[in-house]
Amino acid sequence: MNKDIYDFQLKCFLRYANIPSQSNASSKTLPSSEGQMNLAKVLANELKELGLQNVVLNDNSIVTALLKGNKSDAHSIGFVAHLDTVNVGLSDSVNPQIIKYEGKDVLLNEKENIMFKVNEHPEINDYLNDDIIFTDGTSVLGADNKAAIATIMSMLKHIIDNNIEHGDIHIAFVPDEEIGLLGAKELDLNIFSPDFAYTVDCCGIGEIVYETFNAGSATINIEGVTSHPMSAKGVLVNPILIAIDISNNFDRKETPEYTEGKEGYIWIQGIKGNQRTAELNLNIRDHDKNLYTLKKEKIKSVIEKAIKDNPMAKIDYSINDVYGNISDSIKDDKTAIDVLYTAMKNLNINPKTISMRGGTDGSALSVKGLITPNYFTGALNFHSMYEFLPISSFNRSLDMTLEVIKIVLNKS
Ligand SMILES: [Zn+2]
User: Fold this and answer.
1) 32: closest CA among 186, 172, 142?
2) Of 178, 201, 216, 225, whose CA–CA distance to 79 is shortest?
3) How far, in Å, from the CA of 282 to the mean position of ligand 1?
4) Phi, psi of 111, rounded to the nearest 5 degrees
5) What number is the average pLDDT over the span 215-241?
6) CATH architecture for residues 3-212+326-411
7) DSSP summary character for residue 380
8) What distances in angstroms separate CA 270 from CA 25, 283, 386, one per listed residue?
9) What is the spatial distance between Cα 159 and Cα 141, in angstroms, rounded to a whole number?
10) 144: CA distance to ligand 1 center in Å?
11) Ligand 1 mean position to 51 CA, how many Å?
12) At what angle do helices 143-161 and 34-50 cross, to 10 degrees?
């Protein structure tokens, strides 16, 4: 491959990284932050300049575009990446720097004396003598997911400039993945309508994800009865104690802190209350659809019992599905997955299939009927100021993207 395209990929990434686009979980709007719209505008313009068709930026900061195929009978495929970077309380402005890793601790920030310590992040030893993009220790890098955006833009440029054969290629850049896959849920599959799609997100070279959690949430609102304690007997109903009673019904070993791999959990992740009201928030996670359903039923029966036991309280609740396991949506046709393994074989990349203890935008899209597995951006230590992107892996993510297009073309 011509080295110029890798330079282009790197320049794209550095440019996008410099546009602050943290999502904001407390916002009620989509996008949740202005920065995402700023980035979306830049991308919509660049897609137009590249010559894509149907470039649309909507009010929700969802960018969609189509590169019409130059071979008519080919499968159409899609690529999805998210615009937001995670807000974990670090700075919204990113100052990426490229440092060659030579086996020693890396000084990220001289002024603040922030070190990247090898003994705390031994995974970096896989990248000895690589040029690596680091942060300055005050922010995440945002390779999650701007590495993917840069890779997708570079793929488009490469196939347009070199007149490479391809089927229809649909592009979607969506906001607010980090706060509940909100952009992907909103994505209109009449507009973004490939046969199947890929997210390019997460993790080191070789990683493939098509097993994610089934995810749901439950909110329980309890209204008690207040009273002065001097005359409370038989009158006062304490909503806080009802919330605690409900919580105590769940298995203390089926929690995030006691589970790993494919073990699911119920996470009591919010409880607040006062004399009159209490609210309890649960997250429900399981790879296995049946076990997930059982967890939801368990929650329901626990609440129903609380309602019965506390006739003077008013208890409302809702249990909602948030996203699904991608693999449950894959029926007989495994083309989207097979393509990834074939691409890695052709490129001599060792595939690492991960059952993700979380979800991707693909988890939201697959539930809606669009199979969307994920492959690597090449970056590591997401959601941390120690996030880093080895440039060699980043380039391989671009190779992978081009290879996927090639294989899909020959499959049809
Ligand atoms: Zn991501």
Assistant:
1) 186
2) 201
3) 23
4) -60, -45
5) 97
6) 3-Layer(aba) Sandwich (3.40)
7) B
8) 15, 9, 28
9) 28
10) 4
11) 27
12) 10
Per annotation, catalytic residue among 46, 136, 144, 177: 177
Q: How far apart are CA 266 and CA 252, in angstroms?
A: 9
| Overall average pLDDT of the 178-199 stretch | 97
Pair 135, 13: CB distance under 8 Å: no
297 is catalytic: no
CATH number for domain 214-322, candidates 3.40.50.12710, 3.40.50.920, 3.30.70.360, 3.10.450.710 = 3.30.70.360
Confidence grade of residue 412 (pLDDT, cut at 50, 70, 90): low
How far apart (Å, rounded) are the C-alpha atoms in residues 280 and 84?
A: 28
From ligand 1's centre to the CA of 16, what distance in Å? Answer: 15
| pLDDT over threshold 90, residue 107 | yes
Q: How far is the CA of 145 from the centre of ligand 1 (A)?
A: 5
- Summarised one tens digit per residue, pLDDT across range 259-298 is 999 999 999 999 999 999 999 999 999 999 999 999 999 9
Catalytic residue status for 84: yes
* Alpha-carbon span 179 to 246, nearest angstrom: 26
The token pair at 16 is 């996008």
CA distances from 389 to 41, 99, 105, 203, 398 (A): 25, 10, 16, 9, 13
CA of 176 to the centre of ligand 1 (A): 10
Question: 81: Cβ–Cβ under 8 A, 6 or more apart, which residues?
Answer: 145, 148, 149, 152, 172, 173, 174, 199, 200, 201
* Rounded distance from Cα 180 to ligand 1 centre (Å): 11
Residues of the chain with CATH 3.40.630.10: 3-212+326-411
Catalytic site residue from 46, 84, 136, 195: 84
Q: Are 204 and 262 in contact (CB under 8 A)?
A: no
* Dist. CA 258–CA 237, nearest whole Å: 33
pLDDT band at 1 (very low <50, low <70, confident <90, very high): confident
pTM given for the model: 0.91
